[in-house]
Amino acid sequence: MAGKSETKPAAPLASIRVLDFTHVLAGPFCTRLLADLGADVVRVESSKHPDHPWPSAFVSDDGRHASYLNTNRSKRSIAIDLKNRAGQKLARELVGVVDVLVENFSAGVMERLALGYDALKLCNASLIYVSMSGYGHSGPRRDWTSMNMNLQGYSGLMMVTGAEGDPPTAISNSWNDYIGGLHACFAILQALARRSASGAGSLIDLSQFECSAAMIGSSILSSAVNGVLPPRRGNRSEEFAPQGVYRCAGVDEWCAVCVQTEDQWKALAEVIDLAESSDFSTVAGRTARHDEIDQAISVWTARLSSKEVEQRLKSLGVAAERVRRIDQVVESSNASAIFAMMPERRVGYMRTTRLPFSLSNVDLPPPRSAPSLGEHSAEVLREWLNLSRTEIDGLTQSEALR
Q1: Is the pLDDT of residue 32 over 80?
Q2: φ and ψ at 60, to 5 degrees?
Q3: Where would I find the beta strands (DSSP E) of 154-253?
């Protein structure tokens, strides 16, 4: 009917309940993605073991770091002592009414708390149970302690970053945690789709080490086939030449340039006034003389600002973007597409990243303030288990809730 407003569908995971036993980053990032897609995510925490990932310039009056506030937005929190028998019983009751459980403890921790998959699938046959340990729950490495740096080193990732002669080089910003969380979210969505057809739950045993190795799979496979270790290329490419990051006029100003086609190469060679040579007519030829080409590009870029280099090369069809610092990304004209201003009661508002995609005809829920420890204990128990005030008070007195 003309003039009638359309009601948009609910967010994709609006009906999904997630019980979140995660801590620090990999697990919380996974469950944050689920919350961003509309799931009701309830963190299981305890005052005995609060989740304080690492030191931060900002610490709220309730002990939450800025990283916690960003990674745990849009979730609720219930405080349960999982070493208390009544607390374990309460956790199992909550498992009975949820769709997904996510944990990223070391292998064996949940079993010692009587909360392993074999025990909990008896409470909820349709449960999707996700374990995100460093090396998985089987094999000789299951009991190894894992951290982002160790996982990057052991997976071989550090030896395909950086340039030849550099020490092993990690990707910064806890890359392995984020890639692990992303893979876990992908696995959960697959399991939810499968369950909608079969009704069956499942156990997802995710190895963060394997996530890291999977991201350099092409290097690993090519090395296995030809028996040659992949070279460390730094900013260069095996497919395109020239490619690199070039210093521009000003203090610490740079521009990233990548030539992909012969037309782009001819345009670049003309603008940097590099004499034509038959060696330059192929990628292989340009790769062999890459140092010489880099020198010519650097002489030209050193006379111009990074923005001028970017504009000149883009006008010629050459892929070029100035290298920006974090503050420049935050303050840029397109920052609103990357960030959202989230109401955060501890600071008023804080900038947080958006999901990097949109869905047609669906409004994803706006981010909400991260919870304080146990902030929603009574609320969740009333909504999910229909407990009375008296029953909730009894759990507090037994120290199951703390």
Answers
A1: yes
A2: -75, 170
A3: 202-207, 243-247
